[in-house]
Each structure stands twice: as structure tokens, then as C-alpha cells.
Design goal:
alpha+beta; 2 helices; 3 strands; elongated
Length: 109
């Protein structure tokens, strides 16, 4: 490699690093739970320092009695499984899902 190629490579790497850092510094937009039974809602983007401990709770929720279950995912910072489940149920109610069917999965982070 000659010096021109090396300088071009270095400039392009600096541009990519700057773009990555700018994208990471913007606040994440809150995501709403979707009502589709085939699509799963994506978890909110959290930095590594925010999600060191806690649980990821997946609930089967519905808005009406005779409706297909929808997966609702909630990220809790609580170390207690029961407390994380209760927080997830409250968040699902707040998101507009009055009927909580059952717990699909609880994963420890």
C-alpha cells in the first residue's frame, strides 16, 4: 500500500467511526408493542451499562377476550423474577393490553 491509499483508508475509517458514535449518542425512541400475532415487538435499544442485570419477560397478551395471543416483551432491571413479571404485567396494561394470558418466557440478563 502506498501512502495515498493508507490516508484514504484512514479517512474513511474516521468517517465510519464518527457516524457510529453520532448514531449511538442519539436518544433511543420508545417502541410500542405491536398487535400482530406473527410479528414480535423488538426490545428497546439499551446501552450495555443500563442492562447489566435484570430479566427479559415475554407475556402472551390480548386486547379482547376472543383474540389471538400477542407476544409482549418487557425488559426489567429487577433481579427478582416475580417483581420483573409484575412490572411486565403493569407495562402491558399501560400499553393497552388488558388481558394477560400467561408468561411465555423469563430470561435472566
Amino acid at each position: 500500500m502506498n501512502t495515498d491509499d493508507l490516508e484514504d483508508f484512514e479517512k474513511s475509517m474516521h468517517k465510519e467511526i464518527d457516524a457510529f458514535l453520532e448514531a449511538g449518542s442519539q436518544p433511543a425512541k420508545p417502541q410500542k408493542a405491536t398487535r400482530s400475532s406473527t410479528k414480535k415487538p423488538q426490545p428497546p435499544k439499551a446501552s450495555a451499562s443500563e442492562m447489566k442485570t435484570g430479566h427479559i419477560v415475554k407475556l402472551a397478551v390480548r386486547t379482547k377476550q376472543l383474540e389471538l395471543d400477542t407476544a409482549f416483551e418487557y425488559h426489567s432491571t429487577s433481579i427478582s423474577r416475580l417483581e420483573a413479571q409484575m412490572e411486565a404485567e403493569k407495562a402491558a396494561n399501560k400499553a393497552g393490553f388488558p388481558i394477560i394470558g400467561y408468561v411465555i418466557d423469563i430470561q435472566r440478563v
